[in-house]
Transcriptional regulator with XRE-family HTH domain
Amino acid sequence: MDEGEAARLKQAREKLGLSRDDAFVRLRIAGKDISFSSYKRWERGERDISRSMATEIVEILQKSEQEIMGERIEPGGEDLQTVPEIEMEVSDGNGARGTNSNLMLPRSYIRSEYGIHPERLVVMRVRGRSMLDTLSPGQKVLAVRQEGQDLEDDVIYALRGPLGFTVKRLRFDRKEARPVIWIWPDNPEQEDQRRCLNLNDFEEEYTVVAKALEVRQKL
């Protein structure tokens, strides 16, 4: 076990302000056939890693996702998908429109990583403290536009409701033998803002705009 290489991986990642998830995404985009479990074990010093492999990983982490993709995709090669950042407008259909974004991902990567049509992928920005400690203000979340898909229990969604755009967890429950939906801020200090609605009231008050996929610290 080479603790020196493990420390080098961890120090490089932390210096760049990347989470382990962020680092792993960059390695995947670079085409490295590495599991998340292997990466974590290397960084913790629980599995041997060669100096050359550690150096290669550090060099990849030091590049932005755009730089990595630019190296992989030749002119005239694979199409890139611009991923818009959504904003909310009460008067606009489902309440969302895309704004300019500097994030571009290979369409094949979006299909293989998330199993969705590339044009459904969006970015939503976290505002406020209601989702602490799961999400922090200023973080950006990759999400998939909701297009009539069934809602999933205990998943974070972008909603348009009485107070405008919000990012909250949805939880399914039953009261008096009837199904209900909890609109659930994860921050325990905002427990009094958790709402329980029957399905009809939820559909009348809220439009589900997108489902969160993963947090990206460094978009």
